[in-house]
Amino acid sequence: MRHLSAVGKFLKDGHHHRLNGYRLNKMKLKLATFFWPLAALGMLSLNGCSAPDLKARQLGATSIVPATYEELTLATQSFDLRSYAPRDRSPRQELRVFIEGDGFAWERRDRPSPDPTPITQTVLSLVAASNQPNLIYLARPCQFVGARSRNCQESLWTNERYSEAVVSSLNQAIDHLMTEYKAKHLILIGYSGGGTLAALLAARRSDVSGFVTLAAPLDTAAFSEFHNVSPMTGSLNPMDQAHLLSRIPQIHFAGDNDEIVPLQLVLTYQHALANDQCSMIITASADHWSGWTGITPNPADITPTCKAYEQ
């Protein structure tokens, strides 16, 4: 079990409160200087080795998926999206949708990857370990379906990875899933850039009862400034929707050793919320790329609420 600390009701003056038996006694932020371009979120070091081909990545994913799940390809207006969902289509009150991260978006700091399909299956591992019978995995455009799939282009996993086209496509896919399972309520979960998209989706949907993020840049402008790189032109920023997100219960996991999306950046977003009583930050013993699959409780199993944060 990996150590978790909770920062509940984190006030703008820096005070903190005890919550659910955890306490962050002293916040230590390791600030680093980065000169990477927008590769910072979607780059995985291969130590000189070539990346596994698409078929190998697809097989790696299917080997993790629970036997009770089936592979789906959801045809939205612009893109074909890969999903893994329970075979049982019986109606349920709530769906949980776990959105994939940015995947293998960059080969090098100055060269986009030819295919954004993730190499390390962090999200699918969390899905497989979850106890939730209503949990669905949703990949991003061009992941797992091939980089030559309908309307795929490099910008969709680089500077436009949080664009209106991407958000709309995910939104349409979720609409289909909600109808298919006759669900009324939705909890969104997202890892890394998938958390960014979970927040953007939560801001525009009326059926979201909460959302959870892991290592997610929730203020893309602050992220770019922190890393001293150009802004993400063509992408949307959850911070611009803070007034809408303030009313939605939310939990944000931040890695103690995450130098890509450090706790400082998550706090920047939380401090912008008009109602921080519905937002909680939990720190985990993880960096941006590793440590997430072993944390307890599983982020996919958590239900965000506002009352849970009261003293």
Structure description:
The protein is an alpha/beta fold and 311 residues long. It is 22% helix and 19% strand.
Name of the CATH class? Alpha Beta
| CATH-derived topology | Rossmann fold
Spans of at least 5 consecutive residues with low confidence? 7-38, 43-48
Rounded to the nearest angstrom, the radius of gyration is 18 Å
Strand-and-helix sequence, N→C? EHEEEEEHEHEHEHHEHE
Task: Give a short summary of the structure.
This protein is of the alpha/beta class. It has one domain: 3-Layer(aba) Sandwich (Rossmann fold). It has helices at 54-62, 122-129, 164-180, 193-204, 220-226, 242-245, 263-272, and strands at 4-8, 69-75, 80-86, 94-99, 106-108, 111-112, 135-138, 185-191, 208-214, 250-255, 279-284.
SSE blueprint and pairings:
Blueprint: E1 4-8, H1 54-62, E2 69-75, E3 80-86, E4 94-99, E5 106-108, E6 111-112, H2 122-129, E7 135-138, H3 164-180, E8 185-191, H4 193-204, E9 208-214, H5 220-226, H6 242-245, E10 250-255, H7 263-272, E11 279-284
Parallel strand pairs: 4-7, 4-8, 8-9, 9-10, 10-11
Antiparallel strand pairs: 1-11, 2-3, 3-7, 5-6
